[in-house]
Design goal:
Largest sheet: 4 strands, mixed
Number of domains: 2
CATH superfamily of the largest domain: Nucleoside Triphosphate Pyrophosphohydrolase
CATH architecture of the largest domain: Alpha-Beta Complex
Structural class: alpha+beta
Strand content: 35-45%
CATH class of the largest domain: Alpha Beta
Distance between the termini: 47 Å
Order of helices and strands: EEEEEEEHEEEHH
Number of strands: 10
Radius of gyration: 19 Å
């Protein structure tokens, strides 16, 4: 991974940097940093990762597409919105949007239907206590099945769910993927989906 330190906001200063490990996808770096609130350098080990996309794909009948994917670190298969890393190290927004469409089709077989739109929902940080990974959130709507989904071993199921079904899955702790929770919350906050406020 070709990682370079981003331009620091005013008041932040990096005094030292040691790369512990690096490959095509991430870099583990220990840094000595002075923050605006601090007077002495603080040592911190950070996982630098490429940017990623999370795709809320909505069908014409207002259902969202989820995949059930095996995740080795937690030794479980969990329900998630389609997601993936952006290949480019310093991508343009056009490249990020193209990644969102590609990941959706590769993982689910769904793509934009005629008249469909790609709506940028902004970004979030997956776990800013240890990584700078930036997740770009998108709504693609409406989508339709274009081809058979990817049969890669890590994806064991792909289905559509109503908004209420997803809300109930979140309430029952059946959806625990931070990316999916963030995208769902952003959809609600933007008024792009409606949930049962009574929580029934």
């Amino acid at each position: 991974m070709k990682w370079t330190e981003p331009e620091s906001p005013t008041g932040w200063a990096t005094k030292e940097r040691i790369t512990r490990y690096a490959d095509d996808h991430l870099a583990v770096v220990t840094e000595s940093v002075i923050s605006p609130a601090g007077k002495k350098p603080k040592s911190w080990t950070t996982i630098h990762r490429k940017q990623a996309v999370v795709v809320a794909a909505m069908t014409r009948d207002n259902c969202l597409v989820l995949v059930r994917q095996e995740r080795i670190p937690i030794r479980e298969a969990i329900w998630e919105m389609p997601a993936g890393q952006v290949d480019e190290d310093d991508p343009t927004m056009e490249e990020v949007e193209a990644t969102a469409s590609r990941e959706l089709e590769e993982e689910t077989g769904y793509g934009l239907a005629g008249g469909g739109k790609v709506i940028n929902l902004g970004h979030c940080f997956s776990s800013p206590g240890f990584t700078d990974e930036r997740e770009h959130l998108f709504l693609l709507s409406p989508v339709e099945l274009k081809k058979q989904e990817n049969q890669e071993e890590s994806i064991v199921d792909c289905r559509t769910f109503t908004i209420d079904e997803i809300r109930e899955m979140i309430a029952r702790n059946e959806i625990r993927d931070a990316n999916t929770l963030s995208a769902f919350a952003r959809l609600v906050a933007r008024g792009l989906i409606q949930v049962d406020r009574a929580g029934k």
